[in-house]
Amino acid sequence: QITLKESGPTLVKPTQTLTLTCTFSGFSFSTSGVAVGWIRQPPGKALEWLALFDWNEDKRYSPSLKSRLTITKDTSKSQVFLRMTKMDTVDTATYYCALALGSGWPFWYWGQGTLVTVSS
Amino acid sequence: QSVLTQPPSVSAAPGQKVTISCSGSSSNIGNNYVSWYQQLPGTAPKLLIYDNNKRPSGIADRFSGSKSGTSATLGITGLQTGDEADYYCGTWDRSLSAVVFGGGTKLTVL
């Protein structure tokens, strides 16, 4: 059974750095073609892809947010991390991590999401 | 402004069929596989279609996908009230080197 779960602060202040953790189980990061991605969704708005870390150690970022994002992993703990700097109120959103596999990177399994509010 | 364009909303009566379009370009839909997601209110998205027209195990055959050129379409037949949700298309964009999603389509089953 594949599961993913996001964790991290629910409230951050403007200009602060957000670090989210995705803890997964049921699959191995060493499996060819596997990737873990981060996607966010502001309240009432559309999905926005943020970053992807694949089995080949390649990292990919949203072009519009690349300067603020860092994705890392700890394979021994089955965790993937997303760091986002210079948080602003417009970054208030539900943040999801998801398992991607296949051409075009379809996301097969999603975490429940974690709502992060940016407010002073 | 999303890279992939979807209609904001569609509606149909129970039992009827509806289609949701997703328009892109040669850098995304035109040269990669498309996936579709269903997001029920208050829940995480769920993969409905991958590789343009394949269904993951457990997805009803009422859901179908197709692609032609730089556009893709999600079809839902035998509409049920439980199908009321937001639907998103997604794919890889080789020019942006990024995963891209559509703006989402809200399905209302009247």
Characterise the protein shown here.
The complex is a heterodimer of chains A (120) and B (110). Chain A is an all-beta fold. Chain A is built from no helices and 11 strands. In chain A, the strands form 2 sheets. In chain A, strands 2, 4, 5, 6, 9, 10 and 11 form a 7-stranded mixed beta sheet that branches. Chain A has a 4-stranded antiparallel beta sheet with strand order 1-3-8-7, with no helix packed on it. Chain A starts with a strand and ends with a strand. The model of chain A has no long low-confidence stretch (mean pLDDT 97). By secondary structure, chain B is mainly β. In chain B, the strands form 2 sheets. In chain B, strands 1, 3, 4, 7, 8 and 9 form a 6-stranded mixed beta sheet that branches. Chain B has a 3-stranded antiparallel beta sheet with strand order 2-6-5, with no helix packed on it. The N and C termini of chain B lie far apart (28 Å). In chain B, a hairpin with a 2-residue loop joins strand 5 (63-68) and strand 6. Chain B has strands at 9-12, 18-23, 35-39, 46-49, 63-68, 71-76, 85-93, 98-101, 105-109. The radius of gyration of chain B is 13 Å and the shape is globular.
Which helices and strands appear, and what pairs or packs with what?
The complex is a heterodimer of chains A (120) and B (110).
Chain A: E1 3-7, E2 11-12, E3 18-25, E4 34-41, E5 48-54, E6 59-61, E7 69-74, E8 79-84, E9 93-101, E10 107-110, E11 114-118
Parallel strand pairs in A: 2-11
Antiparallel strand pairs in A: 1-3, 3-8, 4-5, 4-9, 5-6, 7-8, 9-10, 9-11
Chain B: E1 9-12, E2 18-23, E3 35-39, E4 46-49, E5 63-68, E6 71-76, E7 85-93, E8 98-101, E9 105-109
Parallel strand pairs in B: 1-9
Antiparallel strand pairs in B: 2-6, 3-4, 3-7, 5-6, 7-8, 7-9
